[in-house]
Predict the structure.
Amino acid sequence: MGLINNIPPEQQPAQTQQPGNQDEKMTQLKKAILAAQKIMYSPNTKKYFLQMLRGDDPVKMVSNAATQVVLLLINASKLQLDPRLVIPVGTVVIGDIFDFLEKARGVKATDEDLENAVEIFIKQIMSSIGGEKEVAQ
């Protein structure tokens, strides 16, 4: 008795999360992603968003646009966005923007494009919000 997957209790990792904590974080993440998408496609910001997607380097365009969208989200939330959600939200926004570019202009992103855009986004967002304070990768 007390064995989980044949691991004695004393060798089992301690549970540090409270029940429901992960569900709450997923709910927060989904809400933040929806809010970011609203920013991208809102009549008030759509023109600004589309202007950011002009240029020849899709990776730069996408990472810059994602950074701006996430910064707008942070400001719109009155700085209440959990800092640990910034990079996951930005990563989803990058994917959404690449999808948009593919549909609108036929620009297909490679895995390397996605990686590079995420890397640039992380550097830009960390620089914009003051370094690595509480932003988790």
